[in-house]
Amino acid sequence: MNLLARTAFRQVTRVATPLSTRSLSLFARSPILTHLPRAALSKTAVTLNNNWLQTRGMKTIDFGGTKEVVYERSDYPPAKLQETFKNDTLSVLGYGPQGRGQALNLRDNNLNVIIGTRKGASWDKAVSEGWIPGKTLFEINEACEKGTIIMNLLSDAAQSKLWNQIKPYLTKGKTLYFSHGFSVIYADDTGVIPPKDIDVILVAPKGSGTTVRNLFLEGRGINGSVAVYQDVSGKAKERAIALGVGVGTGYLYETTFKQEVYSDLYGERGVLMGAIQGLFLAQYEVLRAHGHSPSEAFNETVEEATQSLYPLIGANGMDWMYANCSTTAQRGALDWFRRFQKLNQPLFEELYQSVADGTETRRSLEKNSAPNYRAELEVELAEIADHEMWRTGKAVRKLRPENQ
Ligand SMILES: NC(=O)c1ccc[n+]([C@@H]2O[C@H](COP(=O)([O-])OP(=O)(O)OC[C@H]3O[C@@H](n4cnc5c(N)ncnc54)[C@H](OP(=O)(O)O)[C@@H]3O)[C@@H](O)[C@H]2O)c1
User: Fold this and answer.
1) pLDDT in tens, 98-125
2) Strand partners, 252
3) Is the N or C terminus of the chain more exposed, i.e. has fewer CB atoms within 10 Å?
């Protein structure tokens, strides 16, 4: 397999295929950017954004035979955003990863943005990043009162818990914004039923808030989904797209609240997090049971995947990977992938049903709002961290040249 990786690497350096927007997030945490002062970063963002604007301009894109409309940032330069929201106060509730990333990007786009959060860790973080108590930083109620667009970026559990506190401020003419369809779609469980006389929109960046911020600073923009749940003003979609660009997305793909939350909950339980940990463990345990050393089992399961093959798949696709590995690896992968698919597809179907019937939501709300939530979580996380596979991973990562 090392031969496979070497062959593949040689190939990719020759073809120099452009990286997809998504795969660019691999390079998002640029050490150069994190060492620049904040003022310099803002300036950098604007300069890079302007460069980026001049080079893009796509609308309808053929995705494997299906044409979809994609909205992109070049149609929404900062001046247009400022004009669109000139009479608005954007109230970002919560200063977690999404609240922080989206609010800083809105601020760098020169929009009128304020933060609403409770006193504590988020409040302190906001102060340290230049939000001024009483001017641009408020307790949640006050921010809701001042805002014309209420951007609900509290944790999903808090959105449900604080709904009765927030709802009275959602008066006619205001807009309610989410980054997840969770609260609204599972209203039977969350209690979040927006008033009928306001616009309700969604922009869901496809990645963490840290990536939202870093890609914006690099002048790129993360992929995002955009959806409208209620359009009272007749302008909800246009404003949702503009807001999506304002918070730092580069491309916006149309969806609905329901499709967004179903695919998101399904994906993170599946290949993004749950399934991948399950597959890593299964492969590792079998290797260990057959006498392979921890380092060999880890290298052949995780290290080679994440350091060599996955970046290549991200850049070029699995079709390219299959066409550019050793014939031995190629034969084996071609013979085995259908068996893995056949075995796993029923499980994925079961997972989808569990998302669609609300089981996953109820479990999440119940577990995440339990009084002993943090203590129980720590036990579960420690179990993963203490597993031999991830302890081996720590040692293996130390040997990487960049960590020497
Ligand atoms: N993370 C992602 O990758 C991602 C991507 C796309 C969309 N989204 C969506 O974006 C939204 C925000 O996500 P996030 O990851 O940024 O959220 P988060 O880190 O879980 O929480 C965000 C904020 O919620 C506040 N909060 C939690 N419980 C509270 C309570 N009882 N009262 C008042 N404030 C409370 C936290 O304040 P304290 O610091 O005071 O606890 C924090 O400021 C969610 O709808 C999420 O699904 C997330």
Assistant:
1) 999 999 999 999 999 999 999 999 999 9
2) 71, 224
3) C
